[in-house]
Amino acid sequence: MRVFICEYVTSGGWRDRALPDMLLPEAVLLRDAILADLEELPGIHPVVAYDDRLPKPSADSVPVRRGDDPWICWSGLAQEADVVWPVAPETAGLFARMVRMMTESGARLIGPTPEAAARASSKLETSQRLTRAGIAVVPCFLLEAIPSGLDGDIVTKPDIGAGSENVRAWPGRTALPRAGAGLVVQPFVYGTPASLTVLVRPDGVTLLTVNRISLSHLVGVMTVKGVTVGAMRDETGALAKLAQQVVAAFPGLSGLIEIEIMLTPEGPVVMEIHARAGNSYCGLHAALGVNPSAFLPELIREGRPPGMPHLPPASPVDVPIR
Do residues 127 and 135 touch, judged by C-beta distance below 8 A? Predict the structure, then answer.
């Protein structure tokens, strides 16, 4: 079974410009973690597209060279594959665009439907959809439509953006920028930043690990420094229930997803959803002690995938990002 791994940054998405110093190390780390897990599975033959300025990652790797259109290269590889595993930042709708293109190739996809990818990419729609479902979520407003009652510490970020990209904290609404295309505003939520790594299959939703996120906050600029995979346990089952509720509110989610939350004294509050494998995947195998890709239904040739086993408590694994 040929499985095409397409990670946007390392697979040639930046081939027409200088490689991004900030994004490249974590992109390589994630791609290599996925590749290593797939290479362990019997009958799986991973194929990787790679920016030819980077080292060749595996024996069956296809270079994307200067002047190549990466989207055309990826489309061709997707059509030749049995399964495609797309990974891309949500920025400017890139992940939703990649999912749509891969879906149209006819290959099975490890990931959401195009519609679910687009919905989850928007922080505004995420907030509104989860609010309607009765799930605790940080409120979200367009910069030009801030309600009069919103004051105190405030955060701005792109409505469609990845992780801590262009996230800024402000001491009240009077300090906010006057304009900002595509920016949304949220109240600053105090608590412990965390994320849920969740496996979504047709037969159920499984919380794999609860991760602690390390943030730096320097002169209003917020950046993710790293994540400790499996740092916390879901002793009461409340976080597993939250994961199930979030997935139910977003039909079309599938595969490995990340739900970013803030753990507050009043309970967990959802911050955003990544409908794809995130940085925690890089420590997932070590934390669980088992290969997480073995549980993906798309990698089972025939019949229904085996049921999810009872997993032992995860062991904490640090994944430095910056």
Answer: no
Question: Using CA atoms, how far apart are residues 303 and 307, in angstroms rounded to an integer?
Answer: 12
pLDDT digits (tens, 9 = 90+) for 172-184: 887 787 766 688 9
Distance of CA 56 to the CA centre of its chain: 24
How far apart CA 255 and CA 281 sit, in angstroms, is: 12
Residue 303 CA, chain-centre distance (Å), reads 28
Residue 38, SS3 per DSSP: helix
Q: Over the stretch 193-235, which tens digit does the pLDDT of each residue have?
A: 999 999 999 999 999 999 999 988 776 787 888 999 999 999 9
Helices then strands, each counted (H, E), the chain? 7, 15
Are 109 and 84 in contact by the 8 Å Cβ rule? The answer is yes
Q: What is the pLDDT of residues 130-162, one digit of tens each?
A: 999 999 999 999 888 888 888 888 988 899 977
Q: 292 and 38 in contact (C-beta within 8 Å)?
A: no
Rounded to whole angstroms, how far apart are CA atoms 94 and 99? 9
Judged by DSSP in three states, 79 sits in helix
Task: Compute the CA torsion angle 142, 148, 153, 155 (nearest 10 deg).
Answer: 0
Triad 79, 80, 86: Cα angle to 5°: 65
Residue 190 pLDDT more than 80?
yes
| Model confidence pTM above 0.85 | yes
Rounded CA-CA distance 26/19 in Å is 13
- Report the distance separating Cα 71 and Cα 11, nearest Å: 10
